[in-house]
From TrEMBL:
Protein's GO biological process: NAD+ biosynthetic process
PANTHER family cross-referenced by the UniProt entry: L-ASPARTATE OXIDASE (PTHR42716), SLL0471 PROTEIN (PTHR42716:SF1)
Organism (species): Nonomuraea jabiensis
Name the record gives this protein: FAD-dependent oxidoreductase
Family matches, as InterPro entries: FAD/NAD-bd_sf, NadB
UniProt xrefs under SUPFAM superfamilies: FAD/NAD(P)-binding domain (SSF51905)
GO molecular function: L-aspartate oxidase activity
Domain of life from the UniProt record: Bacteria
Amino acid sequence: MVEISADALVVGGGLGGVAAALALLRAGRSVVLTEEYDWLGGQLTSQAVPPDEHTWVERFGVTASYRALRDGIRRYYRDHYPLTERARAWPELNPGAGHVSKLCHEPRVAVAVIEAMLAPYRGSGRLRVLQPYRPVGAEVDGDRVTAVRLAHRDGGDEITAVAPYVLDATETGELLPLTGTEYVTGFESQADTGEPSAPATAQPMNMQAVSVCFAIDHVDGDHTVDRPATYDFWRAYQPPFWGDRLLSWRCPSPRTLEIVERSFTPNPGDDPRLVQADQRVNPGDGNLWTFRRIAARDNFLPGAYDSDIALVNWPMIDYLEGPVIDVPDADRHLAAARELSMSVLYWLQTEAPRHDGGTGYPGLRLRGDVTGGADGLAQAPYIRESRRVRALTTVTEQDLSVAVRGDKGAVSYHDSVGVGMYRIDLHPSTGGDNYIDVACSPFEIPLGALIPQRMSNLLPACKNIGTTHITNGAYRLHPVEWNVGEAAGALAAFCLDHATTPHAVRADGRLLADYQHRLVRDGVELRWPDVTGY
C-alpha cells in the first residue's frame, strides 16, 4: 500500500474541493486533492449543471476567486471560440443564453479553466491530484482523523493519505460515516428545528431527488436512441402530486404548486442578448429548450454550430424512487436514475406531443461528447442533498426565510465566513413530497456551520455543512459551495499557521478577527449591502 502525505487532504474535487485546495495553496500549503470522476468541478462539470446564481452575481455577492472562475470561462470563449463580433463585445457574455443563469456554458470550458487555475501548483509540486479516486476507509484516533484510504475507480492498489487536516468535499459527505463523525440526513423534525416547512417527525430517508443530466441538440436526421429496457415503467409513472405522467410537459410550478404546461421549441432563433437571466424576475423555465441552454448558436459565427445545445435538467428527470445515501441498494437507484433520463430522451424523440400537432422530435441528438459520460449522459448524478455534519451552528429556515424575517433580512453572524443567496429550492423528494420553494433574504455563512461538534481536524467543504434539509436548498448552489470550500481551506491553512484548531479560532475573538481579515484580504465578502431577497 502506497502512503502519501501533505499539509491538507481535500477529498472530493467538486467546486468546494477545488476552492478549498486553491485557498490552501495560496497560503503556501501542500495539498492532496482527490476526485472520483474524470473531470474536476462537480456540479458545474461532471454533473453538467449550469451555475445557479443570484441576481447580483455580476456586481457582488461572490468571492474573488469564484469571480475569477467566471471571468476565466468568458475569456476562454473569447480566446478559443468563433464568437460573432456582437457576442465578443458583450461584456456579460452568456454563451448559452440560458434563462437559468447569466453564464450558461459547456461543462468542458469550466474544466479547462479550473485546470488552468490549478496548473501552477501542480507544476510546483505542491498540489497532487489523485483522479479517479474515492475514499473507502479511514483511521481515527479519538477526535482526529489520522489517515484516509483511497481506491482507484478501476481497481488496483489502495493509497493511504495522511495530513494534519482533512476536508470532506465529497458530493455526499462520504467521509462522515467513514470517520464516525456525527451527521444527519433527510428531513429534521419541526420539534428539533422549529422550521415552518419541516414535518412533525424526522424523516432521515426522505431526501431530494437526484437527477442525471444530459445535453441535446436538434439537427436533421433521425437520432432516436434504443428503447430503454424500463421505458414502459417510466412512461406510465405518475407521482400523485404531478398532475400528469412524469413524462409529459405538465408538472407543478415550484413556487405555486399549480399544475402548469411547459413549452418546448428547439432552436427558437431568439436574440441571445435579450434573454433575461434573472430568477428574481422570472424562473426562466417556461420554454424548456432555452431554460438551461448552454450554447446559443447565434452567439457563434454562421456554420460553427448546427444547433443550439440544451442541457436537460428538467422536472421529468428527477428520480423519486429512493435515496442514494445510506441505503444498501444505492447503486441500483443510481442506475435507475440513468434509465429514467434515457427514457425521457426516448420519449422526447418518439412520443412527446409537438405543438404543431405531431409527436416526437427524432432530430434531437444526444451530445455525450459535451458531457463526457460513457453512456451519453453526464458522468455523475446531480446530487442536491448530502449528509450534513452535526456542527456548532445549524442554519434553519427561520434564519433566512423572507416570510419569517420580513424586512429584517437574514440573521447576521459574528463569525461570518462568506455570503450567499438563493431561494430555498427543494425538489420533490424520495418520501413523496412536492416542491418546497421559499423566498429568502441574502444570507451569510457562519463559521460554526463548518466546524463539527466533536471532530477536531475534519472540516466539511461542500454541501455537507451545518444546514438542515430545508436550508440546504439555498446553501447547495454553485457560488455558495465554492465559498464554503474556500473558507474551509483558508481555515485549515490558518490553523496550521497559528498552531491552533478550528474550535479555538471560533471561540477566540482575536483569532476569529485575524482569520476573517485573511478572508477579506483574499476577496471573500462577509456581509451584504442593503439588498432585498426574493
